[in-house]
Amino acid sequence: MLDPMDLLRSNLSRVRIPEPTNRIYKQECCVSFATPKSEGGLFIDMSTFLAFGKDCVDWNYEKTGNPVYLHIKQTKKLVPEDRPLKKPTLLAIGVDGGFDNNEPEYEEAHNIVILPSYVSLPFPSVELPEKVRLAVDAILMAEGAERKEQLALWTADKKEISAYAMSLQQIDNGVIIPRSGWKCSKCDKTENLWLNLTDGMILCGRKNWDGTGGNNHAIEHYKETGYPLAVKLGTITADLEGADVFSYPEDDSVLDPLLAQHLAFFGIDFSSLQKTEMTTAERELDQNTNFDWNRIQESGQEVEPLFGPGYTGLVNLGNSCYLASTMQVVFSTQSFHSRYYLSQSLKAAFETAPADPTVDLNMQLTKLAHGMLSGKYSFPASEKIDIANAAAPMSSSKQEGIPPRMFKAVIAASHPEFSSMRQQDALEFFLHLLDQVERVNAGHPELDPSRSFKFGIEERLFCPSGKVAYNRRGDYILSLNIPLHEATNKDQLEAFNKLKAEKKAEGKEVSGDEIVRPRVPLEACLASFSAPEEVHGFYSTALKTKTTAVKTAGLTSFPDYLVLHMRKFVMEEGWVPKKLDVYIDVPDIIDISHMRSRGIQPGEELLPEAVDEGKVESEKLLANEEIVAQLVSMGFNHLHCQKAAINTSNAGVEEAMNWLLSHMDDPDIDFPISQEAENAEALSFVDQSKVDTLISFGFQEDISRRALRASGGDIEKATDWIFSNPDAASSSDMDATTSSTPTADAGLPDGGGRYRLIGLVSHIGTSTQCGHYVAHIYKDGRWVIFNDDKVGASINPPKDMGYLYFFERLSS
Predict the structure, then answer these.
(1) How close are the terminal C-alpha atoms of the chain, in Å?
(2) Of 428, 577, 688, 801, which has fewest CB within 10 angstroms of its CB?
């Protein structure tokens, strides 16, 4: 047998010294959730710099033949009971001034291990070959790939100098700001106050998602005046860089190099002020530190913690609750449970993965499934602080959970928003997940678990000519409007609104326990989906003109799992987004058999195909010359007037003029009409997933399609287009196709229409991009709450507050 040192020397060709650009994994196994703290420690491949736990390192040796590993093992130190707590001052983890959370300290031991015999050599040692010593030093000194991503996302961005600071115009209106005693000029708020640096107005800040904060008067003042910069009163000290200056047009905290001069304009001597208010970053930090779950769901309930297979929590990586709640419900379905846990081992997924398993979605889904479902990581956590000289750490009722970092990185690779630390829409994430899963299983549809959610939708369009057309498409979610007029508690609502008006007249507000919210049955929401709906601006190939058709919809297939999305975010008059404060009464069992589409019926006549597209297009683009002539006589450009008439369907001079005034600055306003038609034809294909995303924002489907066509398929531009074209809601270019279109539900799962509620994702906050998401899942005969890494038996599941509802089809 070779001497250990000779064995190492014989394998030096398999050792690499890492370059600065190499990604080095040393905090977590690529295949499991083992860490240096795990019983077997962590093995870093000294050729690829990938990390493996004790159970997986043999698989890597068999696959790659790489024999040399750096073994890292961390052992907890005993810490005195009176260790002082450090308050964080920076929204960051693991950096000076960042979160400490009083984590225990660890001693770290290093060895060089050579497989397959696990021959071990201690490190550091002068006897080791220089190449090995240099390689190990570089690995240990490098920032781990996992840590790099974490710090890059958590550490607050460095403030930039505002583009408005150097040229800021200040109004000499005689305003002198006192040293204290500040109050909002428009309400009684005395905290979270902002001084506008243009006119000296003191106004309250934004209202937070949980109801705290200000009344939005400062930002409303900016919208009225356009005055760009404001400084938060109470954050101004001799150290002006610490002052919180916010730029409304740049929508960010900024630096103002002339802040001293701008403050002096209003009589403020910054050197004499003491800090009394938290900056925006500190307030955000404070809200992260003091997050109070009792204010969100199941308030004040003593939830029994649960542990074991299927009861593993997910660590919040920073506003990642949308991901955690969605994945908990997804892996509770039989299709995903079977595909990535029962039918695929970690070893099998690793063997089929590419050279870097951290970028393989199949591998990371399998890793996450085994981590969540095996029970291996679901046990009471050790207390953060061990009592000095204690024989064993004390156990806690909480669990540490597993961090889904690698899964988040790979699922977000094709979606930049999910790579950020910002809150995201759980619905958008769910649809993105299914899209990616469908893509990676494209060659093997029988293995694709996303198909268990997919179903067909058929829309029937009835034309005044008496003829019909049918459109079919596939979808993963049934997005439902909430008909508030169907509320079952109208008497209580009427009494509440009367009480609210009385209190408002007295200058008072209603208390939280007095608030009455509408209660709408789920059946009413489902009925609204199938209810007849008028489609204005429908081009009939039978009448050869635009008319009003009647649309009804139904399902052509019933999926294994039906996901209902409640459209709680709607557009008020003036296109202002608003969240509906409403309860949905959801039964445990629903029957949607009546929603099955019947297809073309005996005696129905289909609309003819549009044979002469050029003729149809020319007719659709014909402007009323009387309207055009009147607008031209007012001094408007002839081409612009033609476009105004066409885009308002020749409704009248007033409508066309309103369109003109709101579209004068459109980038394509001077394009020839024929060119617009060509552009429209080129953009006629619309990605259904993007349509679904816009629908989730609360927009109607036909408007979403028009917006995406007009913006070249860009979601952000499409949203801007909708806001810029409110008149688009009054017409539609959703021209019909006949039933000769290929069916969208070929090969999809199908069965009866009875379903049982198995899970829901609820949301608290003013928009889907803020607040908090939580999952409730029916498991083993009881409801269980999954709130990030906290898992427990639910006492009062909020079935009436769901954002997404997951139903499982019952067998006949």
Answers:
(1) 67
(2) 577
Residues of each annotated binding site for Zn(2+)? 184, 187, 204, 217
Q: Is residue 133 located within the same domain as residue 214?
A: no
**Final residue belonging to a domain, choices 588, 606, 624:** 606
* Active-site residue set: 321, 772
Q: Could you tell me if 462 and 534 are in contact, meaning their C-beta atoms sit under 8 angstroms apart?
A: no
For residue 467, pLDDT over 80 is answered with: yes
For residues 68 and 210, membership in a common domain is answered with no
Of 193 and 90, the structure prediction assigns the larger pLDDT to 193
Q: Coil, strand or helix: which one is 776?
A: strand
Q: How many residues does the chain have?
A: 812
- pLDDT score recorded for residue 180: 75
Number of domain units in the chain: 3
pLDDT band at residue 760 using 50, 70 and 90 as cut-offs: very high
* Alpha-carbon distance values, 224 to 116, 170, 607, 661, 758 (Å): 72, 16, 51, 21, 48
Q: Give the span between the Cα atoms of 797 and 776, in whole angstroms.
A: 7
Sequence ranges of the binding site: 184, 187, 204, 217
Task: Transcribe 459-489 into DSSP letters.
Answer: EEEE-TTS-EEEEEEEES-EEE---GGG-S-
Separation of alpha carbons 589 and 754, rounded Å: 7
Q: Is 693 exposed, middle or buried (0-12, 13-18, 19+ CB in 10 A)?
A: buried
Residue 676 has pLDDT above 60, yes or no: no
pTM of the predicted protein model: 0.68
CATH code, 135? 3.30.40.10
Q: What is the pLDDT of residues 281-330, one digit of tens each?
A: 445 444 433 333 343 455 556 778 899 999 999 998 888 899 999 999 99
Residue 223, domain extent: 193-287
Q: Which tokens in the block code for residue 367?
A: 């890793």
Tell me which of 586, 606, 626 is where a domain ends. 606
Taking phi over 0 as left and psi of -120 to 50 as alpha, with beta for the rest, 809 belongs to beta
Confidence of residue 44 (pLDDT cuts 50, 70, 90): very high
